[in-house]
User: Which sequence fits this backbone?
């Protein structure tokens, strides 16, 4: 562990040994670039699954964790104990059911946010939104309805649709 020594303390303190070996090449401060972190990802903490923009999935995605989605998905999403952030490169053609939903890319389908839904300025949503809390930034595009209710309805699953058809 390194300790920072101020100017006044430096005079009386013994010199600290170098922590960096001479053969390592350390880039100068000018060549370092800050990596921007999106606010929605930070709020998830360190337990986030990142789906890159080169990934294409046709099928159903379910789980309990937090997901940052930059790829393409056609099917359904159910993250009842987690959150979904659709990144600016993300494209989803599915109904999304999650604890919290943040859209920066495009979603064609209904959003069911158990706690909240948020559309960033780069978002495009074609579908209805059901959530107890919603935030929509200027510039976001929404083609559909918004219903703000304390109890968010569950989307109909394929099994539920089949059972309803039999009755």
Assistant:
């Amino acid at each position: 562990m390194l300790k920072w020594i101020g100017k006044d303390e430096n005079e009386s303190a013994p010199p600290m040994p170098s922590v960096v070996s001479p053969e390592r090449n350390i880039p100068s401060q000018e060549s370092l670039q800050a990596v921007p972190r999106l606010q929605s990802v930070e709020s998830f903490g360190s337990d986030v699954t990142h789906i890159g923009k080169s990934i294409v999935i046709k099928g159903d995605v379910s789980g309990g964790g937090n997901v940052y989605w930059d790829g393409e998905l056609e099917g359904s999403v159910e993250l009842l104990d987690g959150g979904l952030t659709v990144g600016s490169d993300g494209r989803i053609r599915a109904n999304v059911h999650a604890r919290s939903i943040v859209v920066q890319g495009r979603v064609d389908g209904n959003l069911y946010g158990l706690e909240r839904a948020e559309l960033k300025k780069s978002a495009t949503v074609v579908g209805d939104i059901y959530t107890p809390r919603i935030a929509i930034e200027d510039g976001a595009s929404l083609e559909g309805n918004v219903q703000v209710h304390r109890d968010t309805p569950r989307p109909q699953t394929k099994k539920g649709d089949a059972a309803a058809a039999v009755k």
